[in-house]
Amino acid sequence: MSRNQLPKSVMAAINFKGGTGKTTVAIAIAEGICRSMGKRVAVIDCDFQCSASIAMLGRRSLNGLMQKSATMDTQLLSGFANKKSGARLAACAVPAQFCVSEAHGLLHLLPGSHDMPRRERQIVSALMPRGDIEAAFANAAVEMAKVFRSLLDEFDFVLIDCPPGLTLFSEAAIRAADGLIIPTLPNEISFAAIDHLRAEIERARPDRTFDDLLVGTVVSKVRQKAGSASYRAHMESIERLLDRVAPQFQLLKPYLPYCKELEAATWRDNDESKISFATRYGSFSVTIERLVQEFAGRCGELMARRQPA
């Protein structure tokens, strides 16, 4: 893969439904980009559950950063509360402690905190003009998006791990993003959440449509037991369901299976030394590589379409 195939850009892993594999997909793609292209990648953890932060730093290190008010959300609040034009968010980017060996020194994290729901209210309050909370919320999302995009001055690629549902942080991610990757489960409930996302993009991004922003949809947690009757029935059901939504969801293949290697990718042992990409993802490392290649190619095509003729 060419080192230049992936343009400088901000992408968001988003789905308003929880449990669809957003963090797993975000970390796998981030590590794959570091490994394949040698890019400096920043992952922004916008989910108050802090799964990406725990996976990449470990719970003890994250707790230490929260005690020192050195997380992404506190940096944002500090910048806005002090009436700065924008917080210098790169100052709170920390190198990933638990990542594949090929990503060591390249992969960085802007950690979230469990106080992010409270921090949202504080940020909105800091930017509230004349008591207008709706205007303050929109203004906060716009200003946060600008700060997120400023990370491209320091990094080659920025990937935002979004929370479930519509929050101030997820709206800021939508406003900041050049494109969206949408992890989804193969069921109607997850697809309904994507329809909700489509409607919110129409409101929050008048400059872009959902189709303009969509890099692709990743179907995750597909059950494995190839050859069995239940597996064949499961895959046939998925294909019938996907036939109804493709091509509007721009499916990215291969689908990601439900497997211990991927599930373990977000639970990393504090005693674990850095291991290779192939060891981390085991027999599914080729699947992840193919997904990263397809994702990078789609990102390149999306950004190329926006270049003036």
Outline the fold blueprint.
Layout: E1 9-13, H1 22-37, E2 41-45, H2 51-57, H3 59-67, H4 72-81, E3 94-95, E4 107-110, H5 116-126, H6 133-149, E5 157-161, H7 168-176, E6 179-184, H8 188-204, H9 210-213, E7 214-219, H10 229-245, E8 251-252, H11 260-264, H12 277-281, H13 285-305
Parallel strand pairs: 1-5, 1-6, 2-4, 2-5, 6-7, 7-8
Antiparallel strand pairs: 3-4
Helix pairs in contact: 1-13, 2-3, 4-5, 5-6, 6-7
Average pLDDT: 87
The gyration radius over C-alpha positions equals 19 Å
For the record, give the distance between the C-alpha atoms at the N and C termini, rounded to a whole number.
Answer: 26 Å
Task: Tell me the number of strands.
Answer: 8
Main beta sheet strand tally, sense and closure: 8 strands, mixed
Report strand order across the widest sheet.
3-4-2-5-1-6-7-8
Q: What is the element string, with H for helices and E for strands?
A: EHEHHHEEHHEHEHHEHEHHH
Strand portion: 5-15%
How many domains make up the 3D coordinates?
A: 1
Shape: globular
| CATH H-level superfamily | P-loop containing nucleotide triphosphate hydrolases
Low-confidence stretches: none
Second rung of CATH, namely the architecture: 3-Layer(aba) Sandwich
Count of DSSP-assigned helices? 13
CATH class: Alpha Beta
- Give the helix proportion (percent range): 40-55%
Q: The CATH topology, please?
A: Rossmann fold
What structural class do helix, strand and pairing data support? alpha/beta
